[in-house]
Amino acid sequence: MSNKLALLLFAAVIVLGGTACEHKKTAAEFQVEKAKGFRDKQKIAAIKSYNDLITKYPDSEFAAKAKERLTALGPPPATPIPVKKK
Amino acid sequence: MPFTSRFPFAAIVCLAGFLLTSGPAAAQAPPAPATLDLQLMQKAEQLSNEGKHAEAAAAYEELVTKYPQVASVPEANFRGGYAHYLAGEYDEAIAAFKRVLDNKNLPAELAQLAELSLSMTPQVLAAKASKLPVDDPARKVALGDAVKQFDAYLTKFPNNDEAESATYGKGLALYQLAKYDESTQALRGNLKKFEKSPTVQDSQYLLALTLATQANVALQNATKLDKTADANYDEAEKLLRDIINKRQNLALMNDAQFQVGELLLARAGFMNSPDDKQKQDATFTKAIEAYRSVAPKDLVVAAQKNRIAQFTDLKTKAGIAKDKVQFDRFKRVVEKEQEKLAQVEGRTDQTLTAKIKTGLIYFSEGREDETRVLFTHLDNLGVIEDPEDKKQALYFITMSYAAQNLADKAVEKYNAFQTAYKADPIAQNLQLVMGAMYLTEKLNDPDKAIQYFNEGIEIYPKGRNYGTLVLSRAQAQIQLKKFDEAEKALQATIATKPPKELAVDAEFYLGTVYSQTGKQAEAVKTFKEVRDKYPDTQQAEQANFQVGQLLSSLDPKGAIQELQHFLTKYPKSVLVPPALFALGNAEATTGQSDVALVTYKKLGTEFPKSDPAPFSYFERAKILAGAQKFDECLAVMKEFSAKYPDSPQLYQAYDFTAQIQSSQSKGAEAIATYEEFVSKRPKDSGTSEALLKLSAMWKTYSDSQGPYLVLDPAKRAEWQKGVDKSTAAAELLITDFPESPQVAQALNNLLDTQRLQQSVQLKTAADLEKYFQDLAARFSDKPSTQAKVLFTLAAFTLDKDKVKGVEQMTAAYKPDLKFAPEDLDLYGQALIDNKKFDEAAKVYEKLGKDFPLKGGDPKTASHDTQEAQAIILAGLGKALQEKGDKESKEKAGKMFADLEKLYPWSPKMLEVNYGIALDLHDKGQDDEAMKRLFEVIKAQKASAELRAKSMLLLGKIHETGKRFENAIDNYLKISVYYGGVPKVAAEGLWLGAQLLERQAAGEIPMPTPTPKPTAAPKATAAPKPAAKPAAPAEKKK
To answer: What is the predicted ipTM?
Structure first.
């Protein structure tokens, strides 16, 4: 059952991905997407840095603040799955 | 030995005997009325008995003049001569005795008068000589005549009872004429001929003194080893000890005991070579033993009286037995011994002189405390009566204080000496020693030194230390940067056209002043003048060498010529080794490495014991290392270690070897080299440095295994081995060298290894704290070491808990202890971090008291003091800067500027650059600030913390300049590069994450991509830029 579900999900991703690729983006769309990607990337980096701080320097005066920021930031954004080149 | 008149009493005895026996008939006849001549004779005799010798002599002379025809004239001449002698009228005495000797018609029964006159004549001449000054030519004439007259007597009466005494007198006169060989010959004759005589030990004693004097004189003039002198000393000591061992005559025995001390003291004084040090110490010890065995005066007097009583008894017994020969013999002995008794009673107690001599030995051996205690004790007892001894005591007390740099006491005693004995020749070196005391690092008061040197120059303008005083004054003037004064003083001396021996000194010292003040060309010129103007002097030899040595920096090719000339002209000079060393240097400088290697090797082989010889090995090693001949280089260092196992440079040899091994990536061999040194020389001053290196290398060994968490068990064991060995080396360093400057760094290493173990969860923070607490407890008897350990613990605590960290440091800090400047700096920094700026300032001010600047010029202070001063300027500057108000910041800026100007070499300069960068950033001068920060970041000597802080500041500057990518890069990489600086690394991560978050929130726009530069053509690939490990963000620009 679980194998079947995974196969379906994978197929959906392929289909959706293929559909998206077929649409040619405008420069503005491209810019927005790029900015979003950048912000997501920076958010992930910020979360990683706060985590580093808490792990490596738990006694630091910044550790407590870092924990607060992590709570505020919430979970990291989903990382896009890279497309395998044929 | 003082001249001893040996005949008079015997002569009178004989004379009395003669007079009594010459007129038995008259003695039995009824008394006849005295004739006028007889009345005059009786009057003269009466005056003589009353001790009025001059008047008695005049009465005898009157009789001879008024009644030349009477039978008593020969007797009157003899008695008159003797009275003149006693009155000190030596020429008149000799004339009177001559009249007896010239009398061709002397009746047979008066022949003894002629013999007595003949024996008296040389004694009178010797007595006359003894009253003349040593440099009076008449003295030499009188002594020469005395020798002739002794010979005349001995030729005429070779077997007479008085022959022994006459030979002794002749030996003494020859000794006084410095004709030692003839003197010893005469005295040896006595020892052989009168072996059984009760007075022969007098000759033995004089022979010992003559041999010892002969040895002293020979060694004073010796230019090489003199075996004859040693043989003479040995024989003299043997003769004296024989007198002591036979115990026949306590007075003489005591003199011999004293003279053994004198002989050994003199002999030790000639053992100047460093190789003879042990021998000299042993000889001094034997001399002290001899002096200590000298008996006190009371005992000697009692023994001498006892000796007289014994001979008096023998004389009486001979009289009862009517043995006239023995009676007369013992009478003569009694008279001689009575004379000796008078001498002993009249002179100072010899034990006192012996103690003074012992003090002299203490001083010669550098035992200043004992010298002073002895002389002060004698002085306090009031037993020093002789003015000369009193003077010596005060002189040595003063010298001992000055030699120990105890200024207050030295000055007090110096003033007392000057009040009582100003300009006394004994104290010619006193001003020199006083001045030198003020030039020591402890007192460092060149002005005071100059005052004493000036006094010495003024008091002893022709003294033997004049040249040294002028030069010492010049050195003090140089220290005060009064170069002109030094130069002028020497030139003024030269202008007065002093005698040659002073002129040569003054010119030589002028050359030295030029040399020391960097006027090398003038120095060369002046030394050349000395060399050419005074060719036969010792200074010419030295000047010749100096020319070569000075030219080795000015004109190495010229230096080679000069030095080769010097070596040819003075092949036996003591300066040959330094000349060879300078020649090697000049050859190496001119690129003749192979020739230089030969020269250095010659120096090491032919003069292995010379001062520069050990250094020649290092020069060879340097040349070979430069030529990449590492195996040969290591062989030279090995040769050095084998040849100089006790050299103070041994550590340098091992260090050099280990460094070469490290440079060849032979870390294990380098570690083995340091470990060998530590095991061979566990107490060497270099061992602390070796242990520090071992501690660091073993830690590197651990690091080289890779990250602990991914290591397999075998590698983990190696990792742990490195940590344990590093810890053990650092602990051994702290235990065995608790006062060494390496302790602070060793404690840092310990903290690093403990932290390393904590980071991989092999230890907890509590374990770490316990470790340092236990370590501190091991030094409960060494408060300063304990404080340093606790300081380290405090540094660890500080990272987690600022308040507790400072509390621990405050508890460990004791203002009365002298801490290493680095440790106090740590405390000061912690106080600054905790914003306790005033307390921090106090800590730095205390450091200023521990390492004061004297003499006004910081650059003339010792290196340690300069380093401490640099720390003070950096620390106070930082405290003021962090205080934050405008006035404090301005003061801080000035302090940083001072530090940069005065101590640009100081490691604190890096901190100052950071401080200045902070200030510049505040003022908006970020470009300048960044330049300073890059200097710090790329400096390998900068601490990790300082580099981390600089990166953080660089990040802040980028952030201010809105170069956010660069700012983030700097912030985040701090934890990558300097993870061991948790406080800064955590702040970097925080600030980086904050910027990233703002970017994620869109508060900071996405960066515009920078166009990439066109790739360079492959054929002309651009050279790789120098690595900039500390400015990674800049690469993105």
So the answer is: 0.72
